[in-house]
Structure to design on (228 residues):
C-alpha cells in the first residue's frame, strides 16, 4: 500500500524539493516519519524563496494587465497554473499538519501489517503509482521546459521577457547577460513552484486518499473471510 508503493516516490520528491530549498521537511529513516529540518538557515532560505516567488507571481499579474487582450488570453492559463502551484505550496510557517497525514498513514500501516507481510494492491493504487512518477518527472523537467520555451518564443506572456525586453532570442543573440539572467530566473521560479506546489496535494493528499480507499477494500475482504 502506501509504504510499499507510494513512499519511495514521496521520499524522492521531498529530497529533491529540499535540495532546491522549496520545502523545509525531510524523511527521518530512524523514526520512519517526516519531520521539519533542524537547520534554521535552510528554513529561513525556504521562507525567503517563497516570498520571492510570491512577489514574482504578483509582478507577472501586474505585467500581464498592460498587454493586449490577445496576449492576456494567451498568458492567463500559464499564470493560473503558477497561482495554483504557489497556493498549494504555501507553508511558510513550517506547519506540521500536512506531513502528519503521511505519518498517520505510516503508523497505521505499521500497526496493521505484520513484519514482512504484504497485501494485494488494487487498480487505484497502481494508477496512482504511475501518477506519482509523472509528478516527479514534471517537477524536474519544468525549468528546462521554461528555458526551451523562452529561447524559442521569448515574447510568450506572462513571462518577464514579454514585457521587459521582448526580442527574438537565438544562439547568436543570447550574449546579453541580462537576458540570460532573466531566463534562468524564470526557470528557477518555475522549479520552486513545481516542487513545492506538487508536494502537499499531489504527493500527500491524493496518494493518502487512495491509500485510505485501499484500507477500506482490505478491511472489506477481511470481513468477508471472517464471515465465510
Amino acid at each position: 500500500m502506501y509504504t510499499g508503493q507510494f513512499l519511495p516516490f514521496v521520499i524522492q520528491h521531498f529530497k529533491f524539493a529540499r535540495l532546491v530549498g522549496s520545502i523545509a521537511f525531510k524523511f527521518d529513516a530512524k523514526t520512519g516519519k517526516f519531520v521539519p529540518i533542524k537547520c534554521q538557515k535552510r528554513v529561513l532560505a525556504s521562507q525567503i524563496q517563497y516570498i520571492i516567488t510570491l512577489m514574482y507571481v504578483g509582478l507577472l499579474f501586474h505585467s500581464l494587465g498592460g498587454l493586449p487582450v490577445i496576449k492576456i488570453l494567451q498568458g492567463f492559463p500559464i499564470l493560473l497554473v503558477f497561482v495554483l502551484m504557489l497556493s498549494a505550496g504555501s507553508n511558510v510557517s513550517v506547519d506540521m499538519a500536512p506531513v502528519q497525514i503521511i505519518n498517520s498513514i505510516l503508523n497505521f500501516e505499521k500497526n496493521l501489517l505484520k513484519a514482512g507481510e504484504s497485501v494485494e494492491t488494487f487498480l487505484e493504487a497502481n494508477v496512482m503509482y504511475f501518477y506519482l512518477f509523472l509528478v516527479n518527472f514534471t517537477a524536474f523537467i519544468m525549468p528546462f521546459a521554461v528555458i526551451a520555451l523562452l529561447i524559442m518564443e521569448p515574447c510568450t506572456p506572462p513571462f518577464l521577457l514579454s514585457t521587459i525586453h521582448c526580442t527574438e532570442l537565438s544562439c547568436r543573440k543570447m550574449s546579453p547577460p541580462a537576458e540570460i539572467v532573466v531566463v534562468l530566473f524564470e526557470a528557477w521560479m518555475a522549479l520552486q513552484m513545481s516542487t513545492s506546489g506538487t508536494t502537499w496535494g499531489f504527493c500527500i493528499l491524493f496518494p493518502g486518499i487512495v491509500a485510505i480507499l485501499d484500507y477500506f477494500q482490505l478491511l472489506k475482504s477481511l470481513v468477508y473471510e471472517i464471515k465465510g
Summary: The chain has one domain: 2-227. The chain is about 70% helix and 5% strand.
